[in-house]
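Supplementary Methods S3. Complex input for the NDP-bound model.
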Amino acid sequence: NSLNGAFLPRPCFGQLSLRTTASTWRCTLSIRSSSSPSAIVINGKAEAKNIRDDIKIEVSRMKESIGVVPAEDSSEEEVLKSVSGFNDDPSVHGILVQLPLPSHMDEQSILNAVSIEKDVDGFHPLNIGGLAMRGREPLFLPCTPKGCIELLHRYKIDIIGKRAVVLGRSNIVGMPAALLLQREDATVTIIHSRTINPEEITRQADIIIAAVGQPNMVRGSWIKPGAVVIDVGIKRVEDPSAAHGYRWVGDVCYEEASKVASAITPVPGGVGPMTIAMLLSNTFTSAKRFHNFQ
Ligand code: NDP
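Predicted complex, serialized as structure tokens:
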């Protein structure tokens, strides 16, 4: 481990990595276990395609019925004016502010300018507030956490009464994921960077959602046999043996976890495609709401 550069993920069981920090040469030795993983692979890519296909059919039906045309992207200039224009334009049903913005712009004032009815990202404080409060319904759920829950539903994984652990508490993933699981009647614990003994807490979970941005942090030994693992994390790490010199790594050590978990999302091909599908879904929901379309 002392040879590993800080940019490297923790090596997983069955995959030994040896590297130096010197930029002139690197060596990676991989030993993969021959025993095959037992967990069901939760295929976000396939489910996302199903969702996109369904929305495509529904959008065609809606277009035929009321002739709505989706809006074009906004320009980078006069963003506030554009946001205001999109807010007022009944043919625009969703507004997404692609971050980061150029440094001369105030991110918060632009985000706050988005009408809550068109906040398809679900990040508006009123949407998050609605998510957190009992008896309130947010207009939109944040896309990545919504995608995680959608995968659990589509794979018929019980949530009610289950112990869930969410690793990470960011505004865009961890915190809303924990709120959503709670809404689904799971008993939820959140792990963050100051949590003492995250391994022990994670091991109690029936459902794990990992969103820390720390490659391979969740090891096989952290997972209760039969638990369901949703890996949101995705980081690009150098790998000279890979075709492009890098590979994508999640927060969960897939090789180890897939032997212990009952179901697990791969990285890539798990949560990422679902995020995009949920953005489409939120935008379509908004369009239907605007046109009172059933
Ligand atoms: P942030 O950096 O905003 O938040 C990371 C969270 O993880 C923080 O709450 C932080 O704790 C916690 N954390 C960091 N290190 C540790 C640690 N060692 N132990 C315990 N907790 C830790 O990240 P995001 O939420 O934006 O993203 C998380 C990951 O998900 C990233 O890999 C990102 O690329 C990926 N992602 C994937 C998406 C997808 O569609 N697949 C969409 C969005 C994100 P604290 O609050 O104490 O600082």
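The first strand starts at residue 40 and ends at 41. The two ends are 57 Å apart (CA to CA).
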